[in-house]
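Troubleshooting: if your tokenizer reports a length mismatch, compare your output against this known-good record of 244 residues.
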Amino acid sequence: MNKNSAGLPPALMIQGVASNAGKSLLVASICRLLARRWVRVAPFKAQNMPTSHTGSQIVVMGRPVGQMNVRKYVRYKPQVWKWVRRVNKSLAADAEVMVLEGAGSPAKINLRACDIVNMRMARYAGARVLLVADIDRGGAFAALIGTINFRLGAMPRLWLGAVCAGDDFPDRESRPDVNVIAELRHLYASGLAEALLRLAYDDAGEGYECTVVGICGGLQMMGLDIADPLGLESGGRTGALGLL
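Known-good structure output:
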């Protein structure tokens, strides 16, 4: 079998619309099928998922290198990417076909800039990508279409009447400095918070003039205050809009 421009054998990557979509089962099945046809095949997954909401133990080449939160791991990823390529190339040297597995979903826009396990890995290996979904979980076809054309399923940052948009939309990928506390402070500094509160309350300061919708980070902004003691975003604490 012909190798690609990087000197790697042909590769197929299995990606999913979400975690637990059936990627591992499909990778194992394809490897078994090829092995029964006497094809030298090897599976490969560049990265597994974190073990907690606030951090995980990072293991490289079978050895733990430390406990890291998300921000620290993002800074460490360039080093991990070097190991990923090295290990993949070593494993591929003895294989006729590589079957790669992604992680989570390739449409997670907050992870695209530091991706080493989905499309970046597929491009490096020259792999065709097969996208899978679990039809028994419901919404499979919408998830498939939304993953391939995910911007069609994302609401742009707009003020519709009174909408606290937060930071869950496509332009966040080009603004790593954007986070909920920073956005809330910007609302106050720009006068938008005051305008929003005027829309929410009547002239007497009682009742509501209109419905305020909070989406993701915008919902957090509608509480009394926001605290980030673990420093997962910008850290610190600030007063919020108090609309809940």
